[in-house]
Request: fold
Amino acid sequence: MTQAPGFRAKFAKNQVGALTSSLNIYGGDHTFQGKRPMFKLALLIWVVLGTTIAGVAVLVVVADASLSAQAMKLIPIAAIAGFIIAIPLSFMVSKRIS
Reply:
């Protein structure tokens, strides 16, 4: 099967144009409505901050002798609490960055 000359170049140009317009990497008007970019940033910060706070909470449970006796019950509670505590903190951090 033969293709018209320049077909690949035209196809590649259209794909790059579609990619740059959807990602909006070259500036211009924002393509997102409302506060969606801040939400994406907050979600990224939440993943990092939630893991950190949950890890510190689990470390406290394991390191304290009185809490380590109930570690099977307290470790999941500490991890979930760390991720929940990180949600409002990640939004505060993303607002300060934006």
Notes: Residues 34-98 form one domain. Residues 5 and 94 are 49 Å apart (CA to CA).
